[in-house]
C-alpha cells in the first residue's frame, strides 16, 4: 500500500466512523464554524477542566475533508492544554500552507494525512474549519469578561 492510499484510508475512516461526532453534555466551550464555500457547518464542543481539554465533540455536516479533519483534531487535542492545542493548530496551518517543518508535521499524527490539501486550494477551507473554530473558541473566551466562565479560560 502506498502512502497516498494509506492517507485516503485514514481520511475515509475518520469521515465514515468519526470518534467524536456526537453531542457533548457539560461542554464549557461551544462554537459554530461555517465554511460557506463548501457548505460545511460544524459546532465544536470542548470540555476544559483545570486548563486541560478533557473531552471534545462536534456535530453538523460537511464534506469528507472537513468532517475527518475535525475528528482527527479532536483525537490530538483531547488531553492537551489550550497552549498545546493551539501549537498543534499552528502546526496544522503551517502544513496546509506548505511551510511546516518535518517535526511540525510529525506532531500532527494522522492529521498529517491532510498534507496534500495544500495543493488543492479549493479544499483548504474545508480542512482548516475545525482548527480555525477551535482557535476562535479560545480567542472568544479570552475576550469574555473575567470570571464569566472560569472553567473555560485558564489563566496564562
Q: What separation lies between the terminal Cα atoms? A: 45 Å
| Helix content percent band | 40-55%
- Categorize the overall geometry: globular
Gyration radius (Cα, Å) is: 15 Å
Sequence of secondary-structure elements:
HEEEHHHH
Low-confidence stretches: 145-156
Number of helices: 5
Number of DSSP strands?
Answer: 3
Structural class: alpha+beta
Round the mean pLDDT to the nearest integer and report it. Answer: 89
Strand order of the largest sheet: 1-2-3
The major pleated sheet works out as: 3 strands, antiparallel
Task: Assess the beta-strand content as a share of residues.
Answer: 15-25%
Which terms would index this structure?
single chain, 156 residues, alpha+beta, three-stranded antiparallel β-sheet, 46% helix, disordered C terminus
Amino acid at each position: 500500500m502506498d502512502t497516498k492510499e494509506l492517507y485516503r484510508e485514514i481520511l475515509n475512516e475518520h469521515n465514515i466512523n468519526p470518534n467524536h461526532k456526537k453531542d457533548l453534555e457539560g461542554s464549557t466551550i461551544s462554537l459554530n464554524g461555517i465554511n460557506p464555500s463548501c457548505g460545511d457547518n460544524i459546532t465544536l464542543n470542548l470540555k476544559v477542566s483545570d486548563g486541560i481539554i478533557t473531552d471534545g465533540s462536534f456535530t453538523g455536516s460537511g464534506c469528507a475533508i472537513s468532517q475527518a479533519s475535525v475528528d482527527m483534531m479532536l483525537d490530538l487535542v483531547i488531553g492537551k492544554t489550550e497552549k498545546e492545542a493551539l501549537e498543534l493548530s499552528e502546526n496544522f496551518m503551517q502544513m496546509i500552507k506548505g511551510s511546516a517543518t518535518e517535526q511540525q508535521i510529525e506532531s500532527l499524527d494522522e492529521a498529517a494525512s491532510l498534507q496534500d490539501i495544500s495543493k488543492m486550494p479549493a479544499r483548504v477551507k474545508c480542512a482548516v474549519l475545525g482548527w480555525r473554530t477551535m482557535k476562535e473558541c479560545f480567542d472568544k473566551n479570552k475576550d469574555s469578561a473575567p470570571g464569566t466562565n472560569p472553567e473555560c479560560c485558564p489563566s496564562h
